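Can't paste images in this forum, so I'm doing it all in text. The chain is below; anyone willing to post the predicted structure tokens underneath?
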Amino acid sequence: MKKINGEYRYLMFEGKLYYMLGLTQDDVGKRMEELIPPHRQDYIRDIYDRAWAGETVQYESGLNGLTYLNSLTPVIENGETIELIGAGSDITERKKAEQAMQESESRYRQLVELSPDAIFVVTNRQIVFMNKKAMAVLGGSSLEEFLERPIQENVHPEFRSRARQHLQQVLDTKGVLSPYETRYVKLNGEPIDAEVTAAYMLYQEAPSVIIIFRDITERKLAELQLQESNMQLMKLVSLDGLTSIANRRFFDEMMEKEWDLALSGELPLSIILCDIDYFKAYNDTYGHQEGDSCLKLTAGALDKFAQQSGGFTARYGGEEFIVLLPEIAAEEAADIGVRLCEAVKALGIPHRASLVSPVVTISAGVTTFTPSAGDELEMLIWQADTALYEAKQSGRNRVQVYDVSLMKEGI
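Text version of the structure:
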């Protein structure tokens, strides 16, 4: 699901529930208002808005005579939600089973045994009843395997304290516990992720808690894989493939954000444009493989020092690097430029083809700007580029500040 021009549109349906709700492929691309009954639209829109704001939302809903449990998970990229992934499961029979329990234990047992969910009943912190699904999920074959085990032994140690609190809460309030996620332990000690809800009931005239759960281990694994995929995607989008520092695209995005912050707060913004001296000659002398190694080492040294100074380094193109330094004034930026040059020189990378040093060096152009209305951020890049050109024209292996009164020469 995506939010397009302020409207939520369904871009994909899949799964058993999709067919149960009477949806077809013709419904793909439709707006929420076209599929949700009018009396439910405000409620559903509020849930979608919460999820779009970054919250993972779980809720129950009904459509075409079915009750189902929904979860909405935001997919976030670069701090912004780009789509929502919804998962739904039919809980109609479970709801009917919960109603039937209050009417008769015999009807309750029949419905519970037919339930696709795992169900057990706890009295005095002991399991007194389980359906076959619960036995299968927890790795048992008979009720006797569980009767003499305290309920806590079926809960992962990290979640036992919360499980005790939840049991007591249901007993004290004689109420229903909203669905939540926890971790259970099979008889063989294998942990499983579970989605659980619980409700108060009288079982053989004793205050008890009925617990309904399902194994969501695969779903959690899928969520983890999705998170890892998103992280990998962010790396692909944001990092330079060779040097593993920020790429030009990421720099441009951050530059716009920092420019707006500097503009609204009347704050200084500095950048340093760096170029490896005689890099073409280095490649011609040592080969492109060594050239790549030189780029990686130089990028690492620049980015490490830039981050210590409150900024970051990006590969700007070829052997050029650019350092973004928010809220750094001119004199400090010039000093950072000198120390960046020193950091690269300290790497001691041999460069016998250089005309200025026996080791790899850089030239750097530094500029600082406090933007005001009407200014354009391209001016800042132009100033740094101009200063870098002057540094290279003046002999390389040096820092040139765009404001000549702050010029730093030689290293």
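The two ends are 56 Å apart (CA to CA). Residues 406-411 have pLDDT under 50 and may be disordered.
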